[in-house]
């Protein structure tokens, strides 16, 4: 199987696997206790926190570990809004944020707050001027902007958004799930979220970083762990493995991400040449290095994914729809592009160029057969 769905989850990095196995033997104890095994667990947890903070550009005491990237986003959004309630009840987001941001925004609205959604261009990038205008509105408590879109890979103008937020005195939450460990995290954020399984760590570890000086109050009942930000017992072995994976991915990123970007460039150029009626979606230049999304006219996305799966290719739909709901993607709708028949190819570290060759070799015939079965010439 050629695995092309790294945007959903990156395969476990070999160094993460080694670190996880070793930490299971020595990091199992409660890191909040004072006896020997617990002190060892605390040392492992503190070291992992420092390593992750260094890669993300944060201080160790700004970083807390959650159970997932989704929980990190929920706590980041709702905690910052709660901490800045006296400044206002207004939340600004882009129209293409991850569903975790949108769901947190929905909770904020049901609690009496307001949400302004800033539209995007056809490439999927938010308009910096429109984002700045929204942030400058009175009563804005928080703004949210992802580093790169999870469905089409387009990089967002985080630096410009951060400057606008700084001038307005509004904290900026940056969701770095798709780029952490792959490209440097843009400066200027007040709250940062990420997810370990996106960079080759184990599932079940999210990262929430809150800058010193940012007003934040937990929306959950208070707990003594993780700086009183996240309740529950820390999974020390998984956190240690997450740190090992992030450190390794960041060290490899200079060469490996350049290689993956070259493979994506080749696919962006070749697919429209070999398959008729194809639209490549997302910014061709300002993009995450490992993601490509395209739409094939007159082809159902689910049929294409199933056919590719039988041929040994694991890809996902660039749409957020599922076979059970058939709901179109809010990202693709906001971009004004085709919301059906989408395929997202996202390359993991180490993928062989030969697998790209094989994918390009079978794709034209697969699309042709599906169109013929649907009665389309």
UniProtKB/TrEMBL annotation:
Gene3D superfamilies, alphabetized: Aspartate Aminotransferase, domain 1, Type I PLP-dependent aspartate aminotransferase-like (Major domain)
GO molecular function annotation: cysteine desulfurase activity; iron-sulfur cluster binding; metal ion binding; transaminase activity
Keyword annotations from UniProtKB, A to Z: Aminotransferase, Iron, Iron-sulfur, Metal-binding, Pyridoxal phosphate, Transferase
Domain Aminotransferase class V, chain residue ranges per copy: 3-359
Cofactor: pyridoxal 5'-phosphate
Top-level taxon of the source organism: Bacteria
Keyword presence, Disulfide bond: no
Segments crossing the lipid bilayer: none
A Pfam cross-reference name: Aminotran_5
Taxonomic placement: Bacteria, Bacillati, Actinomycetota, Actinomycetes, Streptosporangiales
Protein name: Aminotransferase
Family recorded in the similarity comment: Belongs to the class-V pyridoxal-phosphate-dependent aminotransferase family. NifS/IscS subfamily.
């Amino acid at each position: 199987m050629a695995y092309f769905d790294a945007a959903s989850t990156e395969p476990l990095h070999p160094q993460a696997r080694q670190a996880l196995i070793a930490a299971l033997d020595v990091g199992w104890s409660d890191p909040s206790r004072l006896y020997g095994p617990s002190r060892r667990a605390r040392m492992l947890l503190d070291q992992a926190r420092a390593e992750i903070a260094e890669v993300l550009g944060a201080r160790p005491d700004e970083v807390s570990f959650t159970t997932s990237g989704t929980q990190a986003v929920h706590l980041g959004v709702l905690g910052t809004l709660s901490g800045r309630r006296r400044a206002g009840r207004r939340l600004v987001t882009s129209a293409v944020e991850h569903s975790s941001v949108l769901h947190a925004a929905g909770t904020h609205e049901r609690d009496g707050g307001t949400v302004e959604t800033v539209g995007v261009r056809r490439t999927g990038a938010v308009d910096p001027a429109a984002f700045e205008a929204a942030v400058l509105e009175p009563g804005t408590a928080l703004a949210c902007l992802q580093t790169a879109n999870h469905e089409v890979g387009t990089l967002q103008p985080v630096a410009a958004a951060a400057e606008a937020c700084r001038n307005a005195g509004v904290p900026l939450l940056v969701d770095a799930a798709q780029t952490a460990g792959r490209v440097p995290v843009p400066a200027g954020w007040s709250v940062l979220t990420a997810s370990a399984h996106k960079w080759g760590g184990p599932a079940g570890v999210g990262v929430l970083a809150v800058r010193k000086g940012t007003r934040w109050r937990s929306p959950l009942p208070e707990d003594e762990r993780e700086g009183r930000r996240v309740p529950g017992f820390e999974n020390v072995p998984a956190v240690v493995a997450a740190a090992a994976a992030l450190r390794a991915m960041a060290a490899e990123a200079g060469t490996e991400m350049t290689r993956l970007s070259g493979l994506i460039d080749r696919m962006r150029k070749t697919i429209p040449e070999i398959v008729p009626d194809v639209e490549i979606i997302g910014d061709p230049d300002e993009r995450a290095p490992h993601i490509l999304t395209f739409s094939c006219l007159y082809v159902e996305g689910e049929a294409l994914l199933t056919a590719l799966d039988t041929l040994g290719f694991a890809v996902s739909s660039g749409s957020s729809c599922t076979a059970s709901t058939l709901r179109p993607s809010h990202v693709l709708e906001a971009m004004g592009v085709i919301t059906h028949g989408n395929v997202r190819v996202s390359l993991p570290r180490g993928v062989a160029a030969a697998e790209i060759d094989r994918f390009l070799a079978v794709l034209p015939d697969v699309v042709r057969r599906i169109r013929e079965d649907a009665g389309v010439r």
